Amino acid sequence: MNIGIIGFGGMGKTHAYAVENLKYFYSPLGFDAKILGVCCAHFENALKAKETYGFEKVYADEDELIADPLIDIVDICTPNCFHYETLKKALNAGKHVYCEKPLCTTADEAVEIAELAKEKGLICAVVFNTRFLLPVLRAKELVSEGRIGEVLSFQGRFLHSSATDPEKKAGWKQNRDVCGGGVLFDLGSHTIDLIRWICGEEFTSVSGLSQIAYKTRIGVNGEEWNTNADEAFYLTATLENGACGTITVGKIMQGTNDDHSFEIYGTKGSVAFDLMQPNFLRFYDGTRPEKERGYTLIECCGRYPAPSGVFPGVKAPVGWLRGHVGSMYNFLNAVANGVECYPSFDDGAAVQRIMEAAYESAQSGMRVDI
C-alpha cells in the first residue's frame, strides 16, 4: 500500500514515523505499506523531506498526488480549513484516507464527508491517536465490562502552556480564519472523542464558555494582531444515559506540557488516566471490602494485544508516539483486510457536531441540545 502525505510539518513527520516503525511493534505485520511521496505548501520543503527521509516522489501540489495511480492512501496533515476540499478530491478519486483531526471546520461539512466515504465504499479514519495508548484501551475495556458500573460523571482536561507568552507570535492554530476554531478544535476534539468513546454514550447537550486571555499578539507578519480564536475553552456536558461532566482545554495554563487526562466515575468504581504518566491506568474498585479499597495503579507499559510484538519489551515504558503507531496500524490493517475502521469519519462528524454546539452555546450563553 502506497501512502501519499499532504503536509509535512510536525504531524506529517509523526505519521511517517508511525508507518516506518510498524514492523518493529507489530509482528507479524500482515501487510506492506510505505510512504511513496509527499507534497507541501512550499515545494522546497517537499524536496528536503524526500532527501532527508528517502521518499521516492515529491509532488508539486495535492492534485498531482491524489491523481497518481500509484497512491492508494492519502494522508492529510494540513491546516483544518483545507481538509474539506482535499477530502472530497481524495474520496472522489477512490483513495482511502487517513485525516488529522478535526475532520472539517463545520458539522455539515463533516457529515457530508462521512456520507461520501460510505457512498464510495472507502476505508477512512480520523486521527484520534490517544485512543491507542494502552491505558486508554484498558480503560475502555473496564468500562465496557461494567467494572465501574453505570457511568455517572466524568472530567476531561487537555492543557498546554504553549500560549502563555504574550510576546510569542501567533501560529495558524491560533487563527480562526485558518483553523476554523481555537483550542477546542485543536485539543478539545481529542478529549471529547475519548469521553464519548470510553463511556460509549453520545453527548446530548453542552454548555460552553470561551476564553481569550491575550487579546492582542504579534501576527505572522510581525505586526500587531487581534486574537480571534479561543485560547481556552470550558464546557459542561450531559450524555444520553444521564451522566454529567466537564471538559477543560487550554494553552494558557502555566506549568503544563501535554497534560491530557480524564476521570470517569461510575456506580461501582472509577478509572483515571494522565498522558504525562502514559504507562499507568488508575482503577478504583468500589465493590471491594471497605478496608481494602483504594486506587490500583495498573501497569500497562508495552503490554499491547497481539499482533503487537515484544519490541522493545512488555515492561519497557512507552510514550506519546506509541499512540500514533497504534493508530496507524489500526487504520492500515483495516485497509489491508477491507474491514471498517474506527475512529471513523462518522466519529469525526459526531465530535464536530459537539464542538459546533459548544461554540454556539458560548456565543449565546445558553445550553445547546445536540
CATH superfamily of the largest domain: Dihydrodipicolinate Reductase, domain 2
Poorly predicted runs: none
Per CATH, what is the topology of the largest domain?
A: Dihydrodipicolinate Reductase, domain 2
DSSP, total strands: 17
Report the CATH C-level class of the largest domain. Answer: Alpha Beta
* Silhouette: globular
State mean pLDDT (0 to 100 scale): 96
Question: Which value, in Å, is the CA radius of gyration?
Answer: 21 Å
- Side-by-side strand order of the widest sheet: 16-15-14-13-7-12-11-8-17
In quaternary terms, these chains amount to single chain
Largest sheet: 9 strands, mixed
Structural class of the helix and strand makeup?
Answer: alpha/beta
Distance between the ends: 39 Å
Characterize the structure shown.
The structure is a single chain. This protein is α/β, with parallel strands linked by helices and 370 residues long. The chain folds into two domains: 129 residues, Rossmann fold (3-Layer(aba) Sandwich); 202 residues, Dihydrodipicolinate Reductase, domain 2, CATH 3.30.360.10. It has ten helices and 17 strands. Strands 16-15-14-13-7-12-11-8-17 form a nine-stranded mixed sheet. The protein has a six-stranded parallel sheet with strand order 3-2-1-4-5-6, sandwiched between helices. The protein has a two-stranded antiparallel ribbon with strand order 9-10. α5 links the parallel β5 and β6. The model has no long low-confidence stretch (mean pLDDT 96).
